[in-house]
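Journal club prep — side note

Before the paper discussion, L.F. wants everyone to see what a predicted structure for a comparable chain looks like in token form. Sequence:
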Amino acid sequence: MNLNDKKRDVAREICRSYGITLSVEALHAFANILVPFKVLRGHKLVNEGEVCNYMFFVERGMVLQYYMKNNVTVTEHISHEGDMVICIESFFLREPSRIIASMIEPGVVYGIPYDEMHAIASHSFELCQLIFKFYQRSLIISQQKADVLRFETAKERYIRTMRENPEIIRRAPLHNVASFLQMTPETLSRVRAQVTEEDIKN
């Protein structure tokens, strides 16, 4: 499979995951702006102080979004296959990012460049809808996380993640999972010991 065919397949996959069907012309325009990156563990997709110029679709691998506070890593989000990674404030405002996006597994991501994305959207209502879906899901995920942290106990947060996103629990380093759930590694270990399969099923 050549690169253009692969990019079209990835474009279709992205559209499916967002519930959008594009015309052949719009799909090709979207596929053409995708930028593939084959990245190693530890590679920074976005570094602190850089402007986030891409939204990244994760085809393979796991991405950690975090910031540093008092020399401690604070995990903002963990993404994997099928997810979109964006440092949203930097991407929207075109300002340096305070959030770092780093690979915690080697993988392949496809960048959607800011300028090219808005350029093709200016000529296509279909692509405007797709971009709206990108932004909508990102904002909903942020709001849902804020609500979970406000209203749920440590055990409830862990159970919810096991139900809705078990790959994070299975694959991400323990200290990153604990930080993502806003608990200490010790609390996470204690909660894991308390949770049963029935808790997760119910």
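L.F.'s comment for the group: Residues 90 and 97 are 5 Å apart (CA to CA). Keep this in mind when we get to the figures.
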